[in-house]
Amino acid sequence: MGIERWVVNLGKFLGMKTESAMVNDRSIARNQCLIASEFSYFGNVDSALIKNLNRSGAFVETQVRFCIGEVVRLKFPLHYLDPPVEVTGVIAWIGSDGVGVKFNPKDW
To answer: How far apart are CA 68 and CA 66, in angstroms?
Structure first.
């Protein structure tokens, strides 16, 4: 059994929601997009793609491995004439091609 499958099974055992359940359990729909962003974590900065976005969170495509609960910072443009938006969030779920980030409401 691969490590990703083991983590999914552990999550089910602990009563955590799967990636698809998290996506279907949103109270606010996400807007599909493709936004280049800076992704900061533990003093590192990487580029990443935001694939969907709303006021409460985003899906970020990245190959960096995270743990649920880790704090990250995203910086991205919403409009080319405005300064970039900077938000802090926490890793809410982990998928095979990226992570779900739940934003800190104080940043909005």
So the answer is: 7
Angle (nearest 5°) at CA 62 between 61 and 64: 155
CATH of the domain at 100: 2.40.10.220
Its pTM stands at 0.71
Q: Structural domain of residue 79, as residue ranges?
A: 29-107
> How many independent structural domains does the chain possess?
1
pLDDT in tens, 65-90: 999 999 999 999 988 889 999 999 99
What is the structure's pLDDT at 106? 77
The answer to whether residue 60 is domain-embedded is: yes
